[in-house]
Design brief:
The structure is a homotrimer.
Chain A: E1 2-8, E2 14-17, H1 19-29, E3 34-39, E4 45-51, H2 55-68, H3 83-92, E5 95-101, E6 104-105, E7 111-117, E8 123-132
Antiparallel strand pairs in A: 1-8, 2-7, 3-5, 3-8, 4-7, 5-6
């Protein structure tokens, strides 16, 4: 009940809706009740749950996060130059968990699960783990 | 072992202590060991764990979050006008999990579980899910 | 499968790598599959997962978090004076969960699990809880 999926990001900052992939995995496995955890093994990317309707929400979130955690900063020391990405990753978090009930995800009407790229474009992975119960 | 509770918020930004509801649910169900997950199905609200004593902590947290993610911003595109709420929701997170041991929550002395409203007042819901083990 | 560990922090803001302690606990318990949850019972500290290689990443993260959530602010009301610590704690989160597979942690190559001190130096604790499955 652990799987690893690949994803290709196309921008430096990007929120990619992976809800369908998670839902399909849960249905394929056939688990009726429990939780599903979506885990990002990268330190400059993360997972969040947010609005699935208006794409402008993603724009505004990424735009403001980039102002709060700017790419350039006179006090940054990390030579790789992507400290902002690490800050954004810890802000949204490395993983999110969603309840499984009657074989489906318990998401709000406007909720989608997002892979958040903060230092792309890159080839990335994420894990899906189910706990029954 | 899944339940849905309703909550009525009274302000645009508000942290409501729901620790007693979570603790009571755990006791009612009678689970001795495991984790309890509290999940918010809304994209402009979230769940966090923070100080349960001085209400000024809530004031300061909501005040500063509103400065970091301001309501008005010349670069916001989302027509609904609540991009700040979405940013705050992803910052605190859609869910929190707490350990259950000997039939009770394992919380620090000063910790409470909060439903965080970031676009109220509204009628809201949250889910409580227990995993034994 | 619940344990409490102590940790001594040495600065006001500090990220301490606790990956080895978590990995060792998982191996000692001998669980092959499941998740391990690391929980911080304090409201001015938290847990995050981020880069384990260049220590400058920790420097940059703590430096910028301190600018985003400043120690001094004319509108803070909390008499204890550590509202910034509470904000940082809710931003990184009270807990993180990691997948266990074949008896080991499923972490990315550059990922470490960090205890985040935001109001030290202090003697602190954290809990490790395993759910099999």
């Amino acid at each position: 009940m652990l799987t690893k999926l690949s994803i290709k990001t196309t921008k430096r900052d990007e929120m990619i809706d992976i809800t369908d992939e998670i839902r399909q995995f849960v249905k394929d496995v056939g688990v009726k009740d429990g939780i599903v955890m979506v885990y990002c093994p990268h330190t400059t990317a993360g997972i969040t749950i947010n609005e699935n309707a208006d794409p402008d929400v993603k724009h505004d979130m990424l735009m403001r996060l980039d102002e709060v955690y700017p790419w350039e900063h006179s006090k940054y020391r990390h030579m790789e130059g992507n400290s902002a990405s690490h800050l954004k990753a810890s802000t949204v978090g490395s993983s999110q968990s969603v309840i499984i009930f009657s074989g489906d995800l318990v998401l709000g009407q406007w909720q989608g699960i997002y892979f958040c790229e903060f230092d792309g474009p890159r080839k990335r992975n994420y894990f899906i783990k189910i706990l029954k119960g």
